[in-house]
Structures are given as structure tokens and as C-alpha cells.
Amino acid sequence: MCGIYLGMSQIPHLTTKQKKVLEFIRERIQGDIPPTIREIAKHMGFSSTGTVRDYLKALEKKGYLKRENYLSRSIELLKGGFKGIPIIGSIPAGNPDTAYEDIQGYIHPYETLYGRISPENLFALRVKGESMVEAGIMEGDLAIIHRQAIARNGEIIAALLENNEVTLKRLRHRNNTTYLEPANSSYQPIYKEFTIIGRLVSIVRKYI
Description:
17% of the residues lie in helices and 29% in strands. The protein is an alpha+beta fold. The strands form 2 sheets. Strands 3, 4, 5, 6, 7, 8, 9, 10 and 11 form a 9-stranded mixed beta sheet that branches. A two-stranded antiparallel ribbon has the order 1-2.
């Protein structure tokens, strides 16, 4: 029932600041220019470059990067580190359909959440269908989902139905009934049993 999460890359055994340092380095390297120690210090608000060196040593020891001590911009990320939020398939915003574990690529958290949420428990699903258009969610969008088993009334969730069918809908509790509500008057609510597998936190739409 929870196989949808398998294969998801995470950042183990790092402190919050270590993760932020690593994410900043990755963002700069993806822009083709590794940061200098001073640039990292400025971004993180560290008063000493020695603090940055301590963080880099810790990240190097944990296998996330390597560097040449005497060269500027010499940080190199190693394989096995955090690649990004995995895009693991499609999720219907229409009639329920099956979502398979099929990693189609990665999206960096800075493209979606600007570093506000740790990417550890996030995954992305591509939207199919038009049942959520009145909530501004269109076919082809990437839905960034926070993995969790509970949600509040009115929140948009990824719900797992029977036979591993997954759909994106708004959670509703009304008159002692819990159901899934579309955001399109042409679609009917879903009253089947379901399991919450995550809550929508962001939608990514690209035009190129």
C-alpha cells in the first residue's frame, strides 16, 4: 500500500544547518559555479570562514562531497547524496488511476519551496486530468507532496484508494462522512475508502 515511497532519496544523519549548507552548494553547482568558502559564510550568516570549513569537513566525512583544500571553488558533490525531490509518476486529478513507482527525474527544492521545507519527506507526482482546475491545478503540473498520514478538513491530499489507485483531491469531513472532493463541478465526490499518503504543499508549472 505504501510502495509509492520506495526509492525516495533522503538526506540521512545531517543536522539542519548541514542540510542547508549542502543545499546551497548544490544550488550553486547546478548553476555551474561552486561557491567559495566566503560565499557560503555570507549565505549562511556565519561570522567566520572557519565555521564553514568545519561544516565542509563534516559533509566530506559523511560522504556528500570532496574538495581540494588549497583551491577556490573546488567543492565536488559525490554520488549517493541528495539528488532532489523525486518525480515518481503521475497522479490523476480526474478519475482515479494507478500511480506506479517510476522515478522520472528529480526537481530541486529551491525550484518549488525556496528552501522553506526540508526535502526529506517530499515527492513529486505529475497531474493528469482536470478535476482540480478550480483550485488552479492543471494537467501536466507537478504536485509536490509532503508524505504524511493525516490531514485537516479542506486540505488537498494525495489519496490511495483500493487496488493502489491514487488521486489528488480535497479532503472533506461533513455530517460524519469523510470523502474526497474535486475542484470541478463536472466531477462527483469520491466516497470510497482511502488512505492519506500525503498533503499537497506546492504546484510547479513550467512553460518551457
